[in-house]
Amino acid sequence: MSQFADTFRRLWTRFLESRAITSLPWVAGGPRRPTVVTTERAISLIPVFACVRILADSVASLPIQLYRRNGAQREQVSFIPQLFWAPAARDNLFQWLHKCVVSLALRGNAYGLVVQRDAFEFPTMIEWLHPDEVWVDESRPTLPVYYWQGTEVPREDIVHITWVTMPGRVCGLSPIQAFAQTIGVGLSATEYGLSWFDNGGTPPATMRNNAKTINPDESKEIQNRLSSAMRSRKPLVFGNDWDFNALQVSPEESQFIETMRLNATQVAAIFGVPAEMVGGDSGGPLSYSSPEQNAIQLVNITLRPWLVRLETVFSALMPGREFVKFNVDAMIRTSLIDRYTAHGMALGQGWRSRDEIRALEDLPPLPNGEGQAYGLPSPGPTDNKAA
Asked: In terms of residue numbers, what domain contains 318?
């Protein structure tokens, strides 16, 4: 029995010395099980969080303006309804819009419960509900039945906004569920990169003795002494019968940069966000050199469909001929000279008054109604004399 044990030990030692690295990193417990994608896990993926953050922050930061249709014309209404300055019990307008867009982006649906109405039964306060607490009976798509926490809610008390909806359905598609595999690839790559460092993707170095065979006990003692010397940053001294080889892995391989960049590009395509804004690759000369052009691209390509979707629903909650518009001009910041030149053109061509221009610059109106006229002011007597 002792001879068998000695033979086994020598064979095992030889196997350890000749073991090849065939896959990296070495992960204890065998291959990983497939990544389960939930909303909470999906939001932990940086490109997903970045897309949701860009959409929600951009939409929520835009001013809302109320207009009234007057035949073929429209006029801006100075009065702002309560729904757009105190829309919920604990949320201001920014937080309220932010929650709505986050729910849409992650679940494809935003469910609002009307909790307060004015004397004419128009909503003045709406609380956004957690999508997991809402169930919709879609058996009759034209007359859906809404349930919140198991209790049926009157249809007129629910404000339902969807992102992408299939014909014949009421609820929108959840991007997390529809693209679980794509998002799961990003989560798996992130976990794989993390395990590289946690589990030691490759041994930091190898020590090989050319003169004698090292048994497991001696190997462990040498390993401990070597690790101690490396931690203390002391010089390492050994004889001519040892070979010391430090193994190195490039940061690009260990972090799987290319895989993560490709996944970020795919996630950006799902949400319609420019890929270069979330760590992806634009794939061509689609980005612009100036912040103004980038902002215009973000508004036209990414935000406009979201804004129109919200404007349509919010306008349906307004009385009569009133409707809601987001002021996207507030997002496009130009240089001072370009902005003043544009104001001068608008004033000279007569399609903006001086008070309207002053309002854009956060300035009060001119006294005595002097700034309400359109077009450049007529020169006074002093100006004629000077001419």
From this structure: 33-202+249-333
